[in-house]
């Protein structure tokens, strides 16, 4: 028997986890706050890229999130 969660349920769980991690990361002092939030965006982008194989718009979104994460981690403070 194969267990699969529906996309809407996974989306809601992902949002809850993401907002929770973002709130925890905001409690850190700089530069760790920017580095961790940037890393979270970069990981989200990489996951979207892998998940979106076959759907070009998801891969483009993943690439944009990855680039934003790198910019946020190293240049925006």
Q: How would you characterize the overall build of this protein?
A:
With 77 residues, this protein is mainly alpha-helical. Helix content is 75%, strand content 0%. The protein has three helices and no strands. The chain has helices at 7-25, 32-51, 56-74. Helix 1 packs antiparallel against helix 2 (32-51). The chain is flat. 6% of the residues are buried. The model has no long low-confidence stretch (mean pLDDT 86).
The major pleated sheet works out as: none
From the spread of the alpha carbons, the general shape counts as flat
- The SSE order reads HHH
Output the radius of gyration.
14 Å
Give the number of DSSP strands.
0
Would you identify the regions where 5 or more consecutive residues have pLDDT less than 50?
Answer: none
Q: Beta-strand percentage?
A: under 5%
Ends apart, CA distance between termini: 48 Å
Give the % helix: over 70%
Number of helices: 3
Question: What structural class do the secondary elements suggest?
Answer: mainly alpha
Provide the residue-averaged pLDDT. 86
């Amino acid at each position: 028997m194969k267990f699969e969660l529906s996309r809407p349920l996974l989306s809601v769980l992902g949002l809850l986890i993401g907002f929770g991690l973002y709130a925890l990361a905001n409690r850190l002092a700089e530069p760790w706050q920017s580095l961790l939030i940037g890393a979270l965006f970069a990981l989200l982008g990489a996951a979207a890229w892998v998940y979106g194989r076959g759907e070009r718009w998801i891969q483009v979104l993943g690439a944009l999130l990855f680039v934003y994460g790198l910019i946020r981690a190293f240049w925006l403070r």
